[in-house]
Design goal:
The chain has 8 helices and 21 strands. By secondary structure, it is an alpha+beta fold. Among the domains are: 151 residues, Probable tRNA modification gtpase trme, domain 1 (Gyrase A, domain 2, 2-Layer Sandwich); 80 residues, Elongation Factor Tu (Ef-tu), domain 3, CATH 2.40.30.110. The strands form 5 sheets. Strands 12-13-14-11-3-15 form a 6-stranded mixed beta sheet, with helices on both faces. The protein has a 6-stranded antiparallel barrel with strand order 16-19-18-17-20-21. A 5-stranded antiparallel beta sheet has the order 5-8-9-4-10.
Length: 386
Amino acid sequence: MTEPFDMSLVQRGARNRRTPYYEATQKYGPAGFTVYNHMYFPIRFDSFEAEFDALLNDVTLWDVAVERCLEISGPDGFRFAQLLTPRDLSTCAVGQAKYVLICDADGGIVNDPVMTRMDENTFWFALASSDALLFARGLKNAYPDLDVTIQEADVAPLQVQGPRSKDLLVKLLGEDILDLRYYFWTDAKIAGVPVVVTRTGWTSEIGYEVYTTDTARGNDVYEAIMEAGQAFGIKPTGPSDIRRIEGAIFNWGADMTYQNNAFELGLDRLVDLDTVSPEASISIGAYRAIRDAGVDTKVNGVVFDGDPFPALNAVKWPASIDDQQVGKVTSAIYSPRLERNIGYCWLPAGSSHEGQTVTVQTEWGTRAATVTPMPFVDPSKQIPVS
């Protein structure tokens, strides 16, 4: 019988909240927590390798209610949502979702949420741990004539990820769920509880996200998914850093902050320079200037020599060329599938090319690393769409 995680090991207080799934997750023996958006976040139930294996072969369930949803609504909801991002939101239909960047007037990335368009003027932005809600509320002061409401939506996302996630959702919701297209959403009920189901995820694997909209019944939804998933080998897990690094998914706050822009990250596709005007989005003017000037630094995929790293790096690692520190490694971990240590390294633009070697001071000694193309697995991103 597993033991529940001893929360007395974490400094607690009323400013930190439990997710609507907290009691349900405790039954499965969480082995680690962090605080994310002022909420307790179960990050591990087993080893990194065991959870990675479950994600690749079966189906996993993650409590990601910590991804608090910034809700923009009201008659001018569309206009205000477009101010936040350089991506053209007019191409996003009601019922659709898009990966977007929330950017400041200098192009700096404030957050990188999945955005869902709930109706013509209502948008949900599922936030990484940051102050993006306050950023949006502050921006409203510069546009007092806009009739818009900015708040945290009372919804709680879960991730159902892995190759058997389709089987599980069919069991819960019926065959019609298979008609849900990649990056679209639909209303449904699980255990009689209203939810929004999206064909999205933070894994580069086949998967869904389930947003419980009656958060008082979050535990009922979690347990219903676990019960239905037993036939498919379901496991509760935390986020898989192995798989997200393999898939070139960045982690805001670790791999990028407001000091970085989309072009440095190779996310040019999220900036619509020709169809979004500087009046419509606060960052487009900056991005036009950045495009013309070019960038000085870029993020790169790297593979490391040596023995497997025993864990995800806890700090950023200095990266050097010819004994001069020129960059930093932000995320690095061992991939059992690739049998290599892999990660991300920020380098000067002139050194950001395949085959460039760097020396990295890791928590486990000095390692050589070589720049390699990303994603490390499934470069055409066909797996999550399939």
